[in-house]
Write a structure and sequence with these properties.
The complex is a heterotrimer of chains A (about 160), B (about 425) and C (about 775). In chain A, about 45% of the residues lie in helices and about 15% in strands. Chain A has helices at about 5-15, 25-35, 40-50, 55-65, 85-90, 90-105, 145-155; strands at about 75-80, 110, 115-120, 135, 140. The longest helix of chain A is centred in the N-terminal third of the chain and has 12 residues, at about 25-35. A five-stranded mixed sheet of chain A has the order 2-3-1-4-5, covered by helices on one side. Chain B contains 17 helices and eleven strands. Chain B has a five-stranded mixed sheet, sandwiched between helices. With about 425 residues, chain B is of the alpha/beta class. Chain B has helices at about 20-25, 30-35, 40-50, 65-70, 95-100, 100-115, 130-145, 175-185, 210-230, 265-270, 295-300, 305-310, 330-340, 350-365, 375-385, 390-415, 425-430; strands at about 80-85, 120-125, 160-165, 205-210, 240-245, 255-260, 260, 280-285, 290-295, 300, 320-325. By secondary structure, chain C is of the alpha/beta class. Helix content of chain C is about 25%, strand content about 20%. The longest helix of chain C has 19 residues, at about 290-305. Classes of the chains: A alpha+beta (about 160), B alpha/beta (about 425), C alpha/beta (about 775). Chains in contact: A-B, A-C, B-C. At the A-B interface, helix 2, helix 4, helix 5 and helix 6 of A face strand 3, strand 5, strand 11 and helix 13 of B. Chain A: Its cofactor is [2Fe-2S] cluster. Chain A: It is an enzyme of class 1 (oxidoreductase). Chain A: It holds the Pfam family 2Fe-2S_thioredx. Chain A: Keywords: 2Fe-2S, Iron, Iron-sulfur, Metal-binding, Oxidoreductase.
């Protein structure tokens, strides 16, 4: 269900923990699975659970508890904007509004071409860089002016 | 990033995070000294106590005392955990420490492991700063390759394995027992205490958890001595501290200053108020700390005792600055939404109460407030505070209580007039997208 | 010991106690939802907050450890304010659907809301709605009512042994659910209904059947497995509507298996035999009791006269009460025949005549928790005795090391340290090795009658078991149903007894049914040269008395049973149910009461005689079985059939005291084992959990469970390859004349060269013996 490369990555994560604590690697394993497949359908969660010898529902608990896991399909690029208070004071909401306007979608929606999904995020621990947005969970973009947003969207568009 | 002081002294952004630069800055000298001089663990803990270092994560618990709780002669594994799950709105210091000076955390943790006899440690890094997690992994690889980490460190009999573990979007994992649950591969739901982690922690084994900045301070304490560190700050408030300044200032960022520095000076360092506007309110210790009015804040110094006396908390040192264009109802609405979204769902008062609080503040903000709502909010927060396993319930309640206490008239105006005291266009203008000068 | 003051009362509690423990001890009620004495502590509902001296805030009684000199107030202003605050939070999102909620009248939330809730809600926002989940045929959900106490989650994980439920999502969005679209399939699942403090999880079969306050609550005893779980049977207008556990810490604790809980549905089955029936010229007709009884009595009298009393045999199900079994054997013996037996699924009776007493568990059930080593031989422990398996599971958490010898490694949901997988025909050689290794470990000589058979070479697996047992301080060796039903039951018994002796442990037999011990005590076995259950069928009798048994499903060899009974000129069946096989075999059907409609006694595996009373009036013209047997005795003018009530029968049947004539040792029996290599495939039979007796077979909801749909035939991959089929293929099973076509699936826990074929199942009722050779061909 996952590529050899992903499985090797998961194995490296498993090795970080004591041998009888494979379940500790579930957060990494779900992350690696999501990176490969784009989101986490239930079969994938079940696969990860059995790979780590843990009950499927326990893996589902984890996948549904942490909000960077996507239990529904998302666009090719997921953009998460922080609108929490410190970011909002420095234009986080305006940046989000600009993104909505540019992409023609609201939060939790995906553009008709399937390229972008927009999400409202909670504190990313980077308030000094506000406005902040996260691209595909792992790449943080700081001080998001309208020009920078235009530039990043253009780059992502072609990917 | 703007820095002076210790932890971020001499670092140059993304360019100097590596081992070579860290060593050039004097890095790993503390660890080498401990290993070569075979300094006894008790001496290290005594230095920590003398330094008056208090936990930098928010609670401010004396670090030396915490380390002394670890059972000395426990037969099995003992663990160390670093709490880099920084997600309290306003706080962003650990991210800078980890991306600009990761080795200071590795060295600090290794010394801690030596002092407490831990064989294994994990640094739990906030999921949203995944690039920092990757950098920390790279730093770990450097340290292992240099014999500074792993088996038989620096040729001694001391071994310590350290790994990075990432979160994936849950504020609650910043609570130390939720963090342990999360490392165990479960939902981050805090544990009831007692038992405390020092006796029943990760995988049920004795565990000590400290904040990133706390660990990062340790090599400096060893190098300059506990007293030297203490003298940088003021009594009972040892050392320097990173303050994360955000909101309506000209230069948001981290400022590492001596404890006890006046707030006015910190504000000045951060470039003063954006657009020269008037200071209205400050949350001095991260979103969970009670808000203080600007005037009260201008009389405070930045240390645990002064802020506490003013009726708030130094917390993680996250200073959220709000100017006169801020609608306090809207500000509280956003914070209340945050706690509602981040409640883990375990304890009844927090699971049910945070949503209730948000909905009432939301309706006040939207012109549907009722006269009795402020009493209702105070009553509901009273039923949440102190009634839950962890402090998230309190954290959700304190902003509500303090916003109403200090800015009650704004709330009343909203309820009576169905609109804000601050005109929408002024609010809009005040929170424009920040452009770095 | 710690001294503590609660609400002004002094109490001394053990170290490690919580405030809740102390409060319980003095009878102070602290309101709670998530706390449950058998589950781990969650401390999350926060309802049990109490005031503690010097504590700045109220503390949860369930989780706060007592310290010496602690002062606690459970009803002080601070405590009550906290409790009322929590109650308000619990109610804000709880629906106001109490009038249509099955939990009404027994709802903890409703009860506590009376004391702690406000009369009006301050919450005016929209209430939360949570989608229902399909948990299977037994548990209904109304998840909007859920208060997230997580008792059900903890139950599946901790007691049932498999996390089948979780709390997904977080905060206000948290909801209890199985993994997406999965059901809760545990054989203990019904307990989550009892545990749920609100109406989120309710009984599906009971749904909307009655309000709880309309139900009469009557004590009873489960007629199914050998544990004898204590029941509360709830009845409305003489119809059993629901069954709940009656707490008995020594037996079922506060739990019930789903079989015990939901089999009552079979009582109301269309298959109930409610009127006596007589076959005349091949046509079944309803008749009156007098005609039917006279027909039976005359038939027996005539058979005895024409063919001798030995031509009459009596066969009874082990799910039958002591009273019925006792009168059956007394009646049969009064006719002059010693051929009576209740061990219908056994095939090896060579130990008869050498037994110390009635085979039993060899220890009280509640001592299982104190064991540190256990060796289970030939048992489908989890499905055969779910709550005994549960006890073993809890003991394993406290350090019990379990070893097992089995022909098919059923998942027990507990750690099995040493497991040997072997065909039943190889059990004896394996056990001989364990005996040898154990004797060496202990430095003790093997008993004389076995010494010659013990091999010098010992496998690693056998040695591991021996070492495990040798290192224990409280050891037990148990025989399961597969061992007892084996063709080698005698040798297995001898060796297990020797292993227990060498390990200085208890030796026990788990037992197949509610009255597997009671049948021996009631003397429902041949004693003076009569035929046993197998012989009675192999040497066909002219007349049979059949008690609670179905020819196609309750016998070790159903083909043989149906042939023998079918050929007999007279078969008198006393049964609560009718069935095509009974119609085919019998000549007269006498409707007798199931356990809910008469009084009686079952003796459980620990030798405890448990008496029960009728909880409802007999359906139709049904009569208690013991009365029918007594009347037959009267009609034939036998002496000793004058009992006025079942108590009198029980008194006569059982010597005084709880535990007469129990004993597992075999005296004076030689060990004769000829190790013959098995050619072909060997049959391994399980009796599926919901197929074991006539009542449970007719419980519709249980028949919809996954357990009821388990594969009929399975074998490991190598065996499938040898047969030349893939998993899922149809195969032809043959034993003697019997041929059955079934699907076979791969199951690598089945021992080599074995085919596991379910017994007691319509699809296999044409086949022969439950053990021995079986031929398997691809279709």
């Amino acid at each position: 269900m996952l590529s050899q490369e992903s499985l090797q990555q998961i194995d490296r994560e498993i090795a970080k923990y004591p041998p009888d604590q494979k379940q500790s690697a579930v957060m990494s394993a779900l992350r690696i699975a999501q990176v490969e497949k784009g989101w986490l359908p239930k079969e994938l969660i079940e696969f990860v659970a059995s790979y780590l010898d843990m009950p499927a529902i326990a893996a589902y608990e984890v996948a549904s508890f942490y909000n960077m896991y996507d239990l529904e399909p998302v666009g090719r690029h997921k953009i998460t904007v922080c609108t929490n208070l410190p970011c909002a004071l420095s234009g986080g909401v305006h940046a989000a509004d600009y993104l909505k306007e540019k992409l023609g979608i609201e939060f939790n929606e995906t553009t008709p071409d399937g390229k972008f999904t927009l999400k409202e995020g909670e504190c990313m621990g980077a308030c000094g860089d506000a406005p902040v947005m996260l691209v595909n969970n792992h790449h943080m973009c700081s001080w998001m002016t309208k020009e920078k947003i235009d530039q990043i969207l253009a780059e992502l568009e072609s990917k | 990033m703007s820095a002076s002081g210790l932890i971020l002294a001499g670092v140059d952004g993304d360019r100097t995070w590596g081992l070579q630069d860290y060593v050039a800055r004097g890095g790993y000298s503390a660890l080498r000294k401990i290993i070569s001089e075979k300094i006894p663990p008790e001496t290290i803990i005594a230095e920590l106590k003398a330094s008056s270092l208090r936990g930098r994560g928010g609670a401010g618990f004396p670090t030396g005392l915490k380390w002394s709780f670890m059972p000395r002669s426990f037969p099995g594994a003992k663990y160390l955990a670093c709490n880099s799950d920084e997600g309290e709105p306003g706080t962003f210091k650990d991210r800078d420490i980890l991306r600009y000076n990761p080795h200071t955390v590795i060295e600090g943790m290794t010394i801690a492991a030596y002092a407490m006899g831990c064989e294994r440690g994990y640094n739990y890094i906030h999921g949203e700063i995944f690039e920092v997690y990757e950098r920390f992994e790279a730093a770990l690889a450097e340290a292992r390759a240099a014999g500074l980490l792993g088996q038989k460190i620096l040729g001694s009999e001391f071994s310590f394995e350290l790994f990075a573990h990432h979160g994936y979007g849950a504020y609650i994992c910043g609570e130390e027992t939720a963090l342990l649950e999360s490392i165990e591969g479960k939902k981050g739901q805090p544990r009831f205490k007692p038992p405390f982690p020092a006796s029943y922690g990760l995988y049920g084994k004795p565990t000590t958890i400290n904040n990133t900045e706390t660990f990062a301070s340790v090599p400096f304490i060893i190098n300059m001595g506990g007293e030297g560190f203490l003298n940088l700050g003021k009594p009972n408030n040892g050392g320097t501290k990173l303050f994360s300044v955000s909101g309506h200032v000209n230069r948001p960022g981290n400022y590492e200053i001596a404890m006890g520095t006046p707030f006015a000076e910190l504000l000045e360092m951060a470039g003063g108020m954006r657009g020269g506007r008037k200071l209205k309110a400050v949350i001095p210790g991260g979103s969970s700390a009670p808000v203080l009015s600007g005037s009260v804040m201008m009389d405070c110094t930045m240390d645990y005792d002064s802020i506490s006396k003013a009726g708030s908390m130094l917390g993680s040192g996250a200073v959220i600055v709000m100017d006169e264009t801020t609608c306090m109802v809207k500000a509280l609405e956003r914070l209340s939404y945050f706690y509602f979204e981040e409640s883990c769902g375990q304890c009844t008062p927090c699971r049910e109460g945070t949503g209730w609080l948000y909905r009432v503040v939301h309706r006040i903000e939207n012109g549907l407030g009722r006269k009795e709502d402020l009493d209702l909010l105070n009553s509901v927060t009273g039923n949440i505070m102190g009634r839950t396993i962890c402090a998230l319930g309190d954290a959700a309640s304190m902003p509500v209580q303090s916003f109403i206490k200090h800015f009650g008239s704004e709330f009343e105006y909203h309820i009576e007039n169905k609109k804000c005291l601050v005109p929408p266009e002024v609010q809009y203008e005040g929170s424009q997208i920040y452009v770095r000068p | 010991m710690l001294e503590i003051e609660i609400d002004g009362k002094q109490v001394t509690v053990e170290d490690g106690s919580t405030i809740m423990d102390a409060a319980t001890k003095i009878g102070a009620f602290v309101p709670h939802f998530c706390y449950h004495k058998k589950l781990s502590i969650a401390a999350s509902c926060r309802m049990c907050l109490v005031q503690v001296e010097k504590a700045p805030k109220p503390l949860p009684a369930c989780a706060t450890p007592v310290t010496n000199g602690m002062k606690v107030w459970t009803r002080s202003e601070q405590a009550v304010k906290a409790q009322k605050g929590v109650m308000e939070f619990l109610l804000i999102n709880h629906p106001l659907d109490c009038p249509i909620c099955d939990q009404g009248g027994e709802c903890q939330l409703q009860d506590l809301a009376v004391g702690y809730g406000g009369s009006q809600s301050r919450y005016e926002e929209e209430k939360r709605v949570v989608l229902n989940k399909n948990l299977g045929p037994l548990v209904a959900t109304d998840m909007t009512r859920c208060i997230n106490c997580t008792r059900c989650v903890r139950f599946t994980t901790e007691i049932a042994g498999e996390m089948e439920l979780g709390q997904a999502f977080r905060g206000e969005h948290a909801e209890i659910m199985p993994f997406v679209e999965k059901t809760v399939d545990s054989e203990l699942s019904g307990n989550i209904i009892d545990l749920c403090p609100v109406g989120a999880l309710t009984s599906k079969p009971f749904r909307f059947a009655a309000r709880t306050w309309e139900l009469a609550r009557r004590k009873s005893v489960s007629p199914h497995d050998s544990l004898g779980s204590n029941l509360i049977v709830q009845v409305k207008h003489d119809v059993v509507k629901r069954v709940l556990p009656l707490e008995n810490e020594d037996i079922n604790e506060c739990w019930l298996s789903d079989k015990d809980r939901f089999s009552y549905e079979g009582l109301n089955s269309d298959d109930r035999l409610t009127v006596p029936m007589l076959k005349q010229d091949g046509v079944w007709k309803e008749t009156d009791w007098q005609t039917a009884l006279e027909f039976a009595a005359n038939g027996l009298r005539k058979t005895a006269k024409q063919n001798g009393p030995d031509s009459i045999g009596a066969l009874a199900s082990p799910h039958t009460s002591v009273e019925e079994l006792y009168l059956l054997q007394k009646f049969t013996r009064a006719i002059g025949s010693d051929s009576v037996d209740f061990r219908l699924r056994q095939s090896d009776f060579r130990a008869d005549g050498f037994r110390e007493g009635a085979p039993w568990l060899g220890m009280p059930i509640n001592e299982v928790s104190g064991l540190d080593r256990l060796f289970v031989i030939g048992s489908f422990l989890r499905k055969d005795t779910p709550l005994l398996a549960q006890r073993v599971r809890q003991a394993a958490k406290r350090g019990l090391h379990v070893s097992a010898l089995n022909a098919s490694a059923e998942e027990w949901l507990l750690p099995v340290r040493n497991r040997v997988l072997a065909a039943p025909s190889v059990f004896v050689p394996v056990l001989l090795q364990v005996v040898g290794a154990l004797a060496a470990e202990k430095g003790v000589a093997v008993a004389e009658h076995l010494a010659a058979a013990v091999p010098s070479a010992v496998s690693e697996e056998a040695r591991a078991i021996a070492q495990s047992l040798a290192s224990g301080r409280k050891v037990a060796v148990w025989l399961g149903n597969l061992a007892v039903q084996s063709e080698y039951a005698t040798e297995i018994h001898q060796l297990a007894e020797e292993i227990a002796r060498l390990a200085e442990g208890a030796f026990g037999i788990i037992g197949e049914a509610a009255n597997s011990v009671g049948g021996y005590l009631a003397k429902a076995i041949p004693l003076v040269g009569g035929l046993n259950a197998r012989q009675m069928l192999e040497q066909p009798r002219k007349a049979y008395l059949l008690l609670n048994a179905e020819p196609d499903l309750d016998f070790a060899n159903p083909a043989l049973a149906q042939a023998a009974l079918g050929a007999a000129p007279l078969v008198i069946s006393l049964s609560a149910f009718k069935s095509p096989a009974l119609f085919a075999a019998a000549d007269v059907l006498l409707p007798i009461a199931p356990f809910t409609e008469t009084s009686g006694t079952f003796v459980n595996c620990e030798g405890r005689a448990q008496n029960f009373n009728a909880v409802a009036r007999p359906v139709g013209e049904t009569r208690p079985g013991w009365k029918v047997l007594r009347v037959l005795g009267n009609l034939l003018e036998f002496e000793g059939f004058e009992q006025n009530d079942s108590d009198a029968v029980a008194k006569e049947a059982l010597a005084d005291g709880d535990r007469p004539d129990l004993g597992n040792r075999l005296f004076g029996l030689e060990f004769k084992f000829a190790d013959q290599a098995f050619t072909g495939f060997e049959r391994v039979s399980d009796v599926p959990i919901y197929a074991a007796d006539p009542l449970v077979r007719r419980a519709p909801s249980l028949q919809k469970t996954r357990d009821a749909k388990a594969p009929i035939a399975r074998a490991n991959a190598a065996t499938l390859a040898a047969i030349g089929v893939e998993s899922g293929a149809r195969v032809r099973l043959k034993q003697g004349e019997g041929v059955a076509e079934v699907q076979i699936v791969v199951d690598d826990t089945v021992a080599a060269n074995c085919v596991r074929v379910a017994a007691a199942t319509a699809a296999t009722a044409v086949l022969g013996a439950m053990c021995g050779e079986i031929s398997v061909e691809r279709v």
